[in-house]
Amino acid sequence: VNDIRSSPKKLPRDFHAKAELHKTQRVVSVCQMYFLDYYCDMFDYVISRRQRTKKVLEYLSQQGDLKSPDQLNGEWTGYLEKEHEILRKRRLKPKNKDFE
Amino acid sequence: MSFLQNFHLSPGQTIRSTRGFRWNTDSNKDVDSTRSSPKRSRDDRSGLVGTQPNAQNLDTQLWVTPTRSGNTLPELQQRQTQREANVVTDFNYTPSHQKQFLQPTAGTAVSSHQDLKQIVEITLGSEGVLNQAVKLPRGEDENEWMAVHCVDFYNQINMLYGTITEFCSPQSCPRMIATNEYEYLWSFHKGESPVAVSAPKYVECLMKWCQEQFDDESIFPAKTSGQFPQKFIQRFVIPMLRRLFRVYAHIYCHHFNEVLELNLQTVLNTSFRHFCLFSQEFELLKPSDFGPLLELVMELRDR
Ligand SMILES: [Zn+2]
Question: Which residues bind Zn(2+) (chain B) (predicted)?
């Protein structure tokens, strides 16, 4: 067990003492929560965005006979600008980065 | 040799995705279509009318490998012999050792927001879903999509490394290495040659360097009107991802046992797989950038 070259299960000698520290337990649970929250939020965003895009495209195709291509392109571009702004805000939202 | 050839696919070869993640099972179409070719048009913004969006059925979507010829994988780049014989490296990364913890799970179909939390729990460690999520949303600016992901991966790596800071010290890891064959050096001043630093020092410098770029309005614009700089991807995104990758490499190669004991292997694998899929989708990293983890990258990709 002491030969680290032959043991793939090797842990540092003081691993368990450190792992049991309140500090370690806390960062581990914060990390798990962070990922769960991140992926929930990310999938939620991706799915919502796809649904919004779908609705806009459906709407625009219904308007096809009533409006000029320029109008339709304008509305599509306007929609994309709004989406772009939402995405940028996601990047800038305050990050709970420093837990230590 | 293209990136995908490392995953045992020939250029131009077409494979059918059998792990398709269906975003909308009812209508079986998705306007936010995914591209099947690495060549992507950027005219979504200007031309909607005239080119009706083709409703693509993701289920039958074909996945075509790029035909572009890239670089050959340099033989063990940055190969270094361990200069200090007294530093014994804990080489705890072996693919066979990690294989059992990669946890393949069946594909998941998501058609609504319901049960998302549950699905995410299953999905962490699953596959298929992330492949779809990395795709550029229809009409979105590629630079913004890159920027969001840079910040996301930075945060993820910060979190992951934060859990092992107790175990990654200048004593345990006097050099920023990944296996015995790769050592990453840090350049403190422009023009000066990079120097060897401890792993925690390297990560500290790296995170600070990333943060400085995020805070720079001329690189990562915060204002609605702010523009990305010229060649943003080549000049800023790729260098950042190449360096962030090294933290994954160090964790996998030297702290995987601690990660296992802390029961964080699923989040680590999910995060790394997400990182790889994103890099691959936009052809950001070369096989040589994955050096010490190339085998693991293949394992995560192939299953
Ligand atoms: Zn370390």
Answer: 168, 173, 250, 255
